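Structure ticket #2291
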Amino acid sequence: MKITCIGGVGTVTGSKTLIESNGIRILVDCGQFQGLKPLRELNWEPLPILPSTIDFVLLTHGHLDHCGWLPRLVNQGFDGKIYCTSPTKDVAKLILLDSAKIQEEDAKLANEGKYSKHEIAEPLYTVAQAEKVFPHFRVINPNESVSLDAEIEAVFTNAGHILGACTVELRLENKIVVFSGDIGRDNDVLMYPPTKPQKADYVFLESTYGNRLHPDTDPKLELEMYINNAVHNGGTVIIPSFAVERVQSVMYLIWKLKEENRIPNIPYIIDTPMGISMLELFVNNRKWHRLRSDEFTAMCKSFTLISDYQETINTIYNKQPKVVIAASGMVTGGRVLSYLERYIGLPETTVIIIGYQGEGTRGRKLLEGAKEIKIHGKYYEVKAKVLEIEGLSAHGDQKDLVNWLSNMEEKPKKVFLVHGENEPADELRIKIQEKYGIECVIPMMGQVFEL
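Resolution: structure written out below.
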């Protein structure tokens, strides 16, 4: 078989891995590139093969960096089946529609404000194009084998991380090839721990946090301290958050703090339509998360949920101290930008970063101490306090990733480290080789492997 790393190598975005075997072409994930402009520009480039020649897409989960290029794939001729779990199908629908809407709005703003370098700014894809993806989805249950061809089978197993996220095990040519997807944490607030693979000839393992260990600090305690300090100073707390799973994790911790009377009685606001829609998915997919029904109901009641943009405007101009959780998690788009336009220049504001920030994103720049950030063509001075809570990441750290390989009956022939920047991937390579003696390879973009 031949495997080509089309995306998600040397970076944590744009995940796409092509498998070719006996005339069948399978794409594991079809993600959108985010962050640095050279990466974003890759979204406009064609694949190295015609999308019409791809038979199947196997989707590990619904995050944009794993599903966000599907509308382009379908628009360019893909007519096959997209296999995924039921929650992943629902999450991907929400994320693709939201992404398309944001891109349409950004293109409109760029054209009206004339700050695009192009004569006419166009969205990467439209809402109508995103909707054309949906008929291709085929739902499979975890741990059940699905036959893609007479000699090719796929099995999806729980990966933790977010609702519906799975590792994909491909059985073909008398070999087992495992694609980890994004691996969750063993002690996640809401998700169950990931299932460890037992057999594999080859493993494609994510390496997002390959050089980091999550701190032993208590994220709940950190939230308590940051919120209390901000309110004491008369300021607003803004938490940029991924709408899928992270919003709900932060809601849970804040709800527990409110229940224990450890934080003040001020407005706690969720301003992300997609994050609110995700709450319904949590209700409909109870077997995928730890939250009890009564806990979930009480948690939701303790927040003000905002969907209408006029409510966003009203909230922004309300000077009362408040805590606002808004997408997007890497501050690349969404309603959090509207809040930052108003609040990033106020020294009493606290911005809490709670997840991985890709290279070149506004979130990464804020963490690295940027003195100003650019939003919708304008520059804003950063006077707000920018703090980080590392313990809320939905990605496993170096220890989790190494431990994920611990149940193997026999050593894989090779482990390919993907979905990570070069330095984290290289440190993870050393750790895996030292502990297990497994040869590790760090692929380059476009590199082809014959297995």
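Closing remark: Residues 86-113 form the longest helix (28 residues).
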